[in-house]
Amino acid sequence: MNSDLLEEYSLKSNTTVPDEGVEMPLDFSRKWILLNKHLNKGMDSHDYVAVFEEACTLLDDAIAGILAANYLPGNLHENIDRLSDKGYAIGTYEKLNLLEALTIRQITYDSLKYCLNSIGDILHRLRMIEKDKINPGPFQIRAEVGEVIEGKCTLLSIIGLGAGGRVFEGTYEGVPGKVAVKEISPHLIPFFNYEKERQFLMAIEHRGIPKVYDVLRNNQTYYIVMEFVSGTTITAFIEEHGRLPLLIVKELSMQMADILCYLYRSSSVIIHCDLNPDNIMVDEENNLHIIDFGIDYNARAKHPKIRMFSGDSSYISPESLDGEENDIRSDIYALGGIIYYLFEGRSPIPGNSQTFRKDTDSAISTIIEKAMAQNKKWRYQKLSQLMEDFLSVRNLGSVPEVLYPGSVSADREAASEDKVREEYTASPIQYEAYHKQLVNCEEQNNTLRKKGNKRIVLFIGLLLLLARNLQKNVFSRIGKKRPLS
């Protein structure tokens, strides 16, 4: 904690004894909240010491303000007794509890939290803070618009709210323009490993995933500072413009598959588990971005994380909802649901066979049904299999007036359906390269897995050989030392 922050917390000893029913000192209560906002896990020891010292200063100022001329500097024990004599509800238990808290030998996160709780209890008994502020909850210490996180990230406005937490528009030191700042929701904090998450998120390099600049700690939670993406969510676009034609759905689906493939072939093998139209954005150049990307399922983790979903079960696989093990087929289920949404203009029905419009091609409905099979054994087992079937469909189906998400020119909006069909037929998009890329991606991932399995088998073999030789050695020595009969 720097000197400026300590000055911000400083409180002059001019507090008078409050009568019963008098409101708590707002300035004092605010400073106590500010102090607790800076109690975060993983801080340096000198930061913990600074918080501890300032908490003691606040307590000392409160006592001095109440006792006035009867205050004895440096004699907490006697001052507490004098407060009791003045009618403040501080008994022997509270006194001993406070003295124990203030004599901690090593200041850590846990010991400091215990200390602040003891000091907060005394401050409440002195009528300086409300009872619910003794140990402030997540909503009392969470960030406010205008707040500066760790001295380098300013929160300008709230632009989103989801199960994972709030999203702010902000600025970040060293990054020109705006950034998006995702605040991790309190119920996810126990599952957020700061060092590992930070290392993983900042290593992601994919055009479909916003670049992460930093992961900050403040307000007893974490803030992911990432690239700001301008555009609209798939949900907002479909609600405004209606269903999309096959060619555009193919393009968007290939981009989604490419992002999933990148995550799946990473060293951590990340399964997103919560893909849906609300957390996928389309920018002005028709590029897709997964904008809600933070705490995700690690398929190789020994103890996988508990996933918190967005609340829309239409796109969440049955095994994810049941808490079972996830794999790439869980994301294939979600991708099938998103393809359904793009074609039908409505969310799929969870847990049931889907209903399709009369003009939906039967080949498309068959592909979606297979991708969204309730039993993952009956789904597509690979992304490339799903995309190969989907890209082979040639029927254009119905075409809406608006073609492209993001910026749409007036000419395209006004184009007749016949003209659009001619344009599609004259200049089809080549998807073979995309499909080849997916196949290569899955082959690389399988190769890595086989290499890993071979190394494990070799390692176990070496251990067995070493144990066998050790056993022979021991028996040999026992035989040599056996006494003569």
Short recap of the structure:
Helix content is 46%, strand content 12%.
Secondary structure layout plus pairing:
Blueprint: H1 3-9, H2 26-37, H3 45-67, H4 76-85, H5 92-101, H6 109-125, H7 138-141, E1 148-149, E2 153-162, E3 165-172, E4 175-183, H8 194-203, E5 212-218, E6 221-227, E7 231-233, H9 234-241, H10 246-264, E8 270-271, E9 280-283, E10 288-290, E11 297-298, H11 318-321, H12 328-344, H13 362-371, H14 383-391, H15 410-414, H16 417-426, H17 432-481
Antiparallel strand pairs: 1-2, 2-3, 3-4, 4-6, 5-6, 7-9, 8-11, 9-10
Short descriptors:
17 helices, alpha+beta, elongated, 6-stranded antiparallel beta sheet, 485 residues, disordered C terminus, Transferase(Phosphotransferase), domain 1, 12% strand, disordered N terminus, 3 domains, Phosphorylase Kinase, domain 1
What does this molecule look like?
With 485 residues, the chain is an alpha+beta fold. It folds into three domains: 3-141, no CATH class; 148-227, Phosphorylase Kinase, domain 1; 231-442, Transferase(Phosphotransferase) domain 1 (Transferase(Phosphotransferase), domain 1), CATH 1.10.510. The protein is built from 17 helices and eleven strands. It has helices spanning 3-9, 26-37, 45-67, 76-85, 92-101, 109-125, 138-141, 194-203, 234-241, 246-264, 318-321, 328-344, 362-371, 383-391, 410-414, 417-426, 432-481, and strands spanning 148-149, 153-162, 165-172, 175-183, 212-218, 221-227, 231-233, 270-271, 280-283, 288-290, 297-298. A six-stranded antiparallel β-sheet has the order 1-2-3-4-6-5, with helices on one face. A hairpin with a 2-residue loop joins strand 3 (165-172) and strand 4 (175-183). Helix 5 packs antiparallel against helix 6 (109-125), helix 10 packs antiparallel against helix 12 (328-344) and helix 14 (383-391) packs antiparallel against helix 17. The longest helix has 50 residues, at 432-481. The protein is elongated. Residues 1-22, 299-309, 395-431 and 474-485 have low confidence and may be disordered.
